Each structure stands twice: as structure tokens, then as C-alpha cells.
Amino acid sequence: GTTPDFRIRVTPDRNERTVTVEDSGIGMTRDELIANLGTIAKSGTKAFMEAVSSGVDMSMIGQFGVGFYSSYLVSEKVRVVSKSNDGEQHVWESAAGGTFEVWKDELFEHGKIARGTKVICYLKDDQFEFLESDRLRDLIMKHSAFVGFPIELLMEHVKEESLEVTRQYEHMNKNKPVWMRPPEQVSHEEYADLYKWFAGDWQDHLAVRHVIQTGNVDFKALLFCPRTAPKDMFDMGKMAERFSIRLYVRRVFIKEFNDLIPKWMGFIKGIVDSDDMPLNISREQLQQNAILKHIKRSLQKNVFHMFTELAKDPERYKVFQESFSQCLKLGIYEDNENRQNIIPLLRYFSSKSGDGLVSLDEYVARMKPGQRHILFITGRTKRDAAKSPYIEGLRKEGYEVLYMIDPVDEYAVQFLKEYKGKELLSCMSMEAARLLDHRTEDDLKAELAPVCRRVRRALGDRVAAVAFGAKMDAESCARLAAAGGGPPTLELNFRHSLVKELGKRSDEDPETLALAQFLLQVAALDGSEPDDPRRELAAEESQALIQRLSAGDRASGEDDLPPLGGAGEPAPID
Predict the structure, then answer these.
(1) Residues whose CB is less than 8 angstroms from the CB of residue 55 and which lie 6 or more positions away in sequence, other chains included
(2) What's the half-sphere exposure (Cβ side, CA atoms, 13 Å) at 239?
(3) Torsion of CA 445, 449, 454, 456, to 10 degrees
(4) pLDDT tens, position by position, 489-500
(5) At residue 59, does pLDDT exceed 50?
(6) Measured between alpha carbons, how far is 292 from 277 in angstroms, rounded to an integer?
(7) Which run of H or of E encompasses 324?
């Protein structure tokens, strides 16, 4: 017979209340109609029909292996008219009641077919929404936008002026599955057209990664990085439900996923197409599918590859950082598995970067000789960070300071302990202040020697002696050393700001006694439980003490006071 062009046509008919799906494929003979469609008694079909009648959720009809019978979800009767090259035209019909009829078509009620098949669905009374061409178009574009044969739909349009109704067939699946071609054969415009269509974006993408993987699992994928973040990027409720990756099996849409890539990567849009998975895979099977788990690992790896390539282009990477730097930092905070891959991608303003951004690699490469820390300061804006009094001396000494000015930085930096052996250090810490103190340990002890005598005199026989302790934590200002049943020895941290505060005062200063008593009180709490009631009392007394300290050094003393709050509460003075 003749060989018409291969195509698929979908025709809604309001008068007949039918939707007809017609193809110009190979068609079926009478025996093939019985063999392929007359399977109502077979186990899979029988299970499907029983599930339909019992009202089970049929969201993935393919789990029964009988995709054709899904038509009965919306149809009270289905008629199939078909003709192959080798046979005459026949009609198959069933109302899904367990029986079917097949007869030779002599009336040609649905027209003569040169070759191919028509599936005519007689819709149930509550399924007339499928007579709307817009509804059918949405379905076709969701599930079959990349099917290899052209799909034509009879579209209905109403002219506003005359209310005249026009109907004509329109080609639906014009989008090309460009991921099927080698990357070197795909133009930027073709990538952009596809991205804009499925991402709903009006701008071109910022970057694309074209994946063609062969081996244990064969699949193809396109991963796109947008230019701008959605306005609700950090809406935590929407973030958890943001569907980023579309899965296709042999160009047929199966499902959209929100968990094939980490949540912080949710701005990435992608298409994955695999020939290795069955079309009729259920949602439950998808979750356990080994192929999908392999794809998941590969997608994450390729997203990082795309970011790394993007970072080689300073202009484009600046756009990326402006839009998605907070997403990277959220990844630092919550993605243990990928944290080490994210860190090299981070960029910050710094005291030496001007209007540019600096990576941790660049920072480490230009550190001062002997510098062991990566210094940072937090602030609301770049201007605030640059004017912080905590960095003034460090800048004069030639140290570079990173400005962490994103809200998420304060959370992320908790998980940025070190990079390439260099510990991250806040400029507000005592240890950073000590970078400016070039005196030796012996120099400091000699300078503060009067403090021990002053505290001993203030405390009297409550202590056996006062001395500088060895190997004390930077945060600890004092501790007690047992003395065989007698009064303990009070050991002081000569580097602590409270001890330095005492060094500024005379024996007659009324605050000398208060400071000495406070040091003894804190030392007695060393090693106690967080909910020790004495901590609350000490915290109250420390607040009063802080208010009385001289304005010049008060901030330093405040920042360095030991935490005294009860269990589960933040320290009242920090």
C-alpha cells in the first residue's frame, strides 16, 4: 500500500464526546488486534481493571504493564480502528467489562485508513475537560514534547471580535531533543530555546553542561544554570518542593524530581533521558532504582564540573556569584558530602580585592610569610565590614581580611574550619588580636607580674597563691589548682583581656577588688555543669562589672568574658 508520512494526530470532538488518537504507523491485522488488545483476562490487565473499580490511585498506570488500558480511566468505551499493509481494515471495541468484539470494517464509520491505527475514546460524563484543546495541548507538551514523530492537535480558537470559531491542526512537539546530538553540533541558540521553554525563563541560560554517559548506565542529560535566582529562592517551604530535574525515558516524560540534586542546587534546571529504564516504571520503583541512583551521583558531579568551568570566566562567574553565592554557602552549611567541592567555588570581597572577588585559593597564595590563619570579619555590608575597628590594625600590618557579608555566612563559617591547612579565624577573636602583639610570652608575664601580687592581696586567705597558668585555653581567664586540703592556687591566663585590665589598675582602684573576686568566682566554675545555678549569679554580677569598666577597653573585655549562661541559653555576655 501507500506509505503516508509518519505522524500522530489528536482530535477532540465535542459533538461525539470523543478524543481520537490517530497514527500512520504499521497498523494491526485482526489477529494482532486480538493478541495485543484482547488481554483483559491476563493477569496484569485484570489487576489493573480491578484496581480501577476499587478506586485505587492510578497515578502511574504503567505499573500494570498495560498502558493502553489507562484510556479507561477517562473512557466508558474505547474503539480501535486499524489497518496494516497486509490486511483489511478491522475494528476492535470494548467497554472494559471483560469482553471485546472484533469485526471487519465495512461501513468505514471513521473513514478509510491507508495504513495505521485510530484509538477513539468515548469519554465518561465527568471527563469532558479532555474535549478542550488547551487541556490536551498541555498534556502533550508535558509528556510527549520530544517524541520523535510529529504530533498534531486539532486546536480551537475563538476570534474576539466576531466570536467566530476556527479549528485547525497544529504541530505540538516542535522542540528538538538536542541532547541526542553531539554537543559540538548544538548551537547556543538551540540550547537557549530549549532552556527557555522548559524553565519558563525569558533570559538565556548562563551556562550549560551537555552530558552523554556510556558504560554501566547509558543516559544523556542537559544541565542549565540560570542567570538570576527566583525571588523565592530561600523560601524554605518552596525550596523543599522545587522540582529541578525532568526525567524522560526514550524521550517520553516520566517524572519531575526535587531530590536528584541537593536542595541548595535547586536553581539548576535539567533534563535526563535514559533508554535503560522501562517506560512503565512506578514511582515506588523509581525511588529504589539502581540506574536512577547512578544518574543522581553523575548529575551532581557534572553540576560541579559546570561550576568549575564557569569560574574560569571572571565576568560570567561574577554574575553567578551575584545570583547564587548564598546557595553555595547554604551548601557549606548543610551538605556534608559535597562540602569540600563547594569550598573552592566560594568568593568574597576582601580588604585587598577592591570591587573584585577573591577565592580562598587566591587568598592563601598571597598570605604573609608565616601566616597560619585565613582572617575574616562579618558585617551587614561591604562598607560596614571595611570600617570595622577589629580589622584596622590587621590591615596596617599587611594582613588581608575576607568580608563575609551574606546573612548565611554566619552559619556557613561554622563549617569552614580550615582550608588547605589554614584555619579560618574571626578578626573579633582574641587570637586575631594577638597577631598584633609581637611581645614574647616572657615579656607579657614580666609586664603583668604585678597583677598576681595585686589579686593575692585583694583575695587574702581565700587563695594560697596567685600565678600564671600554663597551657590555658584562650577563652579561659582563670582556674583553680588544688593544694592538698588548704586554700587553692588561683591560676590566671596572662593573655586574657580581663587579666590585662587588672594590669592597668592600681591597688587602691575600687574595681581591682571587684575584678579579683570575679576571677575567683569564674575559676570556681571551671569544669562545672552548664546548668549550675552559680553561673546565673555570676552572669548577673559580670553585667554590672562590665558597665563599670573603663570605656577604652570595655569592648575587649566584653568579647572575651567566659560564657556563664545556663544550659540551653546563649551566654548573656558574648
Answers:
(1) none
(2) 14
(3) 80
(4) 999 988 887 887
(5) no
(6) 9
(7) helix 314-334
